Amino acid sequence: MSFTEWLQQNRYTVVEVDPATGRLRLKDHGGACRDLSCQAETVVLGDDGMPSELEALNPGDIVKLDSSGGRPDRIVVVRRVWEELTSPEF
Q1: What are the tens digits of pLDDT across the range 9-46?
Q2: What are the sequence ranges of the domains in the chain?
Q3: Local structure of 4: helix, strand or coil
Q4: Shortest CA distance to 61 belongs to which of 87, 39, 83?
Q5: Model-wide pTM > 0.85
Q6: Are 45 and 76 spatial neighbours (Cβ–Cβ below 8 Å)?
Q7: What is the helix (H) or strand (E) element at residue 3, kind and residue range?
Q8: Choosing a second label site near 45 at 20 to 30 A (CA), which of 1, 13, 58, 63?
Q9: Fold of 3-82
Q10: Residue 3, CB-side half-sphere exposure with 13 Å CA sphere
């Protein structure tokens, strides 16, 4: 697997966040969605590198997951939705 393929398979777009229930819906590169149940210990690392909680995520953010046992331990924000929308490609 090439590095580009690995990146595509390991990055997701946030579709919906429900911090009250700890539910997170993500879309993969192929367009398939999956729902995750996050635990209270799940850490979100934003662009500032400081740990926070699910409230820090926005629909459209690009994230990668570090998980064990089927639940994410750490969600790393790779790119924020507003960075994607201000890209010179548009």
Answers
A1: 788 999 999 989 989 999 988 899 999 888 888 888 88
A2: 3-82
A3: helix
A4: 83
A5: no
A6: yes
A7: helix 3-10
A8: 1
A9: OB fold (Dihydrolipoamide Acetyltransferase, E2P) (2.40.50)
A10: 0
